[in-house]
Structure formats: C-alpha cells, structure tokens
C-alpha cells in the first residue's frame, strides 16, 4: 500500500507540475508589456516592497548583481523604475517604481485577472467550488 501511495503522490506531483506550468505560461501570455519575465518580476518586487536597493532586489530575485544591473537599466530606460539617493547612506541608491511602472503592472494584473475570470466562468459550479478549496492549499505549497 505504501508503494501505491508513493506512486499516487508522484503522479499527483507530476500532474500538478504540468498543469501549473501551463497555467503560468497562459497567464504570462496575457502580458503585452514587452518586458521579459525577469523584468516583470523585478518591477513587481520593487512595487510590493515599495522600495529596494539593487542588492536587495538581486537577492530577492535570486540573480547575480551584474544581471540585475542590466534588468534595472532596462526598466529605467523605459521609465518604469527610478533610482533615488538612499535616505541615510549617500553611497547607496534605492529603487522605486514610477507612476508609469505602477500603471503597467496594474494593467497587466487586470488583463490576467480578466483572462482567468473568463476561464473560471467556463467551469461548472462544482469545479469552481473545488478550486475555491484548492486555492489556500496551492498558496501553502507556493510558500514552502
């Protein structure tokens, strides 16, 4: 019995991995910003944290500082992110999202929400009820 549970768990893991990856790709496809996935993630992280140093952002996104420097430069060039002097350490800068960057993120979220809402509308009430129960579990998995 333990063997069948292991296979069952492995099968569930595989099915979830494939489905979540597909759903993630479909949601990303709703973005029309022209930003790379890394640029989108960096911009969203700075917005979520309200401001970050370039080093904090690189650590948060788990990339090397030189790579993040290129991402930051591209976002600055598009007027989505701005560097400002650190309030207490003149040697450092702080990154902030511009109004244009906030609007872009807001529009991306709106488009993704609309797409997903439409897909949910195509499901049966029973399927939506199952997803309501699964949402907190998926959130828990995403945090581990």
UniProtKB/TrEMBL annotation:
InterPro entries in the record: HTH-type_Bedaq_tolerance, HTH_MarR-typ, WH-like_DNA-bd_sf, WH_DNA-bd_sf
SUPFAM superfamilies, alphabetized: Winged helix' DNA-binding domain
One Pfam family in the UniProt entry: MarR
UniProt protein name: MarR family transcriptional regulator
Domain of life: Bacteria
Region described as Disordered: 46-65
Species whose genome carries this gene: Actinomadura alba
Domain HTH marR-type: start-end pairs: 9-140
């Amino acid at each position: 019995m333990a063997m069948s549970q292991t296979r069952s768990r492995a099968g569930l893991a595989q099915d979830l991995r494939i489905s979540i990856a597909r759903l993630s790709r479909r949601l990303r496809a709703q973005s029309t910003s022209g930003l790379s996935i890394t640029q989108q993630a960096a911009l969203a992280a700075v917005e979520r944290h309200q401001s970050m140093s370039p080093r904090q952002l690189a650590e948060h996104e788990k990339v090397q500082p030189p790579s993040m420097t290129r991402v930051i430069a591209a976002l600055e060039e598009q007027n989505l992110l701005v560097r400002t002097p650190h309030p207490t350490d003149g040697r450092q800068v702080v990154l902030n999202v511009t109004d244009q960057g906030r609007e872009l993120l807001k529009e991306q979220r709106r488009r993704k929400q609309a797409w997903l809402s439409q897909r949910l509308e195509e499901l049966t009430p029973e399927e939506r009820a199952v997803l309501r129960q699964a949402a907190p579990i998926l959130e828990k998995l995403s945090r581990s």
